[in-house]
Amino acid sequence: MMKNIVDVLSLQNRVQETKIQKTKPTDYRKIDKIGIVARFLFECAIKLEIKPLTSACAAIIYHRFFKEVNTSDYDEYLIAASSLYMAGKIQDDPVKIRDVINVAHCTLNRGASPLELGDEYWSMRDAIVQAELLIARTLKFDLNFEHPHKFLLYYMKTLQDWLGSTIWNSVPIAKTAASFLQDFHHSEKILNHKPTHIAICCLSLTLQTYGVQVPLTDESEESSMWYTPFVPDISKDKHWEIIEDIIEVYKRESEIDNM
């Protein structure tokens, strides 16, 4: 376990460096791998220039939908595109449906030109709108999500005062924790945990990665863990389970990059 934690940042960095250095973009049509559609969703989100919370919301919509249905019954890429369109409305970060259509189309079909206002365009537009209604009905119109982001901000502010500015500024704690949280949205396992638990584990993984010890705490005793005052209902086993789930995201991404 400790070796995994020590190595996770280098694994994260290798995944990011591979994405930057790759001359050939991901060919989504030719790769059948767990996590590939989530990568597509976030690539589209970046191209659409939507906010991180909006793309996270889209990922939650996507994961929740496929938790309720059989994956093989629906076009995952269509659901991902529709999830992005819905998330923009929910988070008051609207994106034009024409932009969603063209970004999704060009991302799936590398080198393709934006669709003209013809049969293919109107067919895809209708499919996204119909998928939006399907998703809403499948989720019983429950589209209000409690995101871990707000809890992470609160925990980081408190921990910054606890650690002191010297230690806090010595390593990129806030940036790395936020990155862990955003990347965890690639995994359907994010649905298995409470938002408060996810937030604290992203921060805990960051501290473990950089070897930062929180003052006046004893990690040998569960009751003396630094995060106990923040989330008293999380057990040590649950803490490690979530961290393992976060690390798994980078293993998946690395496998996809090496295909």
Automatic annotation (TrEMBL):
Keywords: Cyclin. One of its GO terms (molecular function) is cyclin-dependent protein serine/threonine kinase regulator activity. InterPro entries: Cyclin-like_dom, Cyclin-like_sf, Cyclin-Q_first_cyclin_box, Cyclin-Q_second_cyclin_box, Cyclin/Ssn8, Cyclin_N. Signal peptide: none annotated. Gene3D superfamilies: Cyclin-like. It comes from Glossina austeni. It comes from the Eukaryota. This is Cyclin-Q. Belongs to the cyclin family. Cyclin-like FAM58 subfamily. Pfam families: Cyclin_N. Residues 39-137 form the Cyclin-like domain. GO terms for biological process: regulation of transcription by RNA polymerase II.
